[in-house]
Specification:
Blueprint (H helix, E strand, L loop, with lengths): L1 H5 L2 H17 L5 H30 L4 H27 L2 E3 L10 E3 L6 E5 L7 H12 L3 E5 L5 H14 L5 E3 L4 H8 L5
Parallel strand pairs: 3-4, 4-5
Antiparallel strand pairs: 1-2
Length: 191
């Protein structure tokens, strides 16, 4: 099994390189692109919420579908809605005070993407802890790689399948694997 998982490490390296190249070609995605990515993420969760809850329940041996709906699905969807509502304002540059010795200059903060964001999500709330940070990273204009926990294999496999249906690997992808793949994942120069 470990040999099979380690075969996925080259996939990780290829995905990471692909996303870095995509970010270099388009380092400042416009508002419309970011909103479209959030819409796809919302559609993924809304259309497949039942399948996701059942996969999580299977991984846990049994977990209330209601708990997943309230503690995970709702939180992810509410976060996406909040982000979509405020994203335009968050993207705008803001003036900030300028130090006396820098006058007559002006100072401002310009929000900008950092590149490729890596998310390692734990097993206990696998949907929320994978997709809530993914939503924020996508909204900020970043590319996203998610490494879900190997302790939730049914959910993780479903998440990889769904993300591949809704996103280009240039924008968002899921990397499956064991602790060795996790070590390779966190050693990438994200940012």
């Amino acid at each position: 099994n470990q040999g099979i998982e380690m075969e996925r490490a080259p996939d990780l390296l290829a995905l990471f390189a692909r996303q870095r190249e995509a970010f270099a070609r388009d380092p400042f995605p416009p508002l419309a692109t970011r909103l479209a990515r959030l819409q796809r993420l919302r559609d993924l969760v809304q259309r497949h919420g039942d399948r996701i809850a059942q996969a999580i329940s299977a991984d846990f041996g049994h977990r209330s579908l209601h708990e997943t709906a309230v503690a995970e699905t709702f939180i992810v969807l509410a976060g996406i809605a909040h982000t979509r509502k405020h994203l335009k304002a968050w993207m705008k540059p803001r003036r900030v005070p300028t130090s006396f010795h820098s006058l007559p200059g002006v100072s401002r903060i310009q929000p900008q993407p950092v590149g490729v964001v890596g998310i390692v999500s734990p097993w206990n709330y696998p949907l929320q802890l994978a997709l809530a940070p993914a939503a924020v990273a996508l909204a900020a204009g970043n590319r996203v790689l998610v490494k879900p926990s190997e302790v939730t294999p049914t959910f993780s496999a479903l998440l990889a399948e769904l993300v591949a249906q809704f996103f280009s690997p240039d924008d968002c992808a899921v990397v499956l694997g064991d602790a060795e793949v996790g070590k390779a994942f966190v050693s990438q120069p994200f940012g």
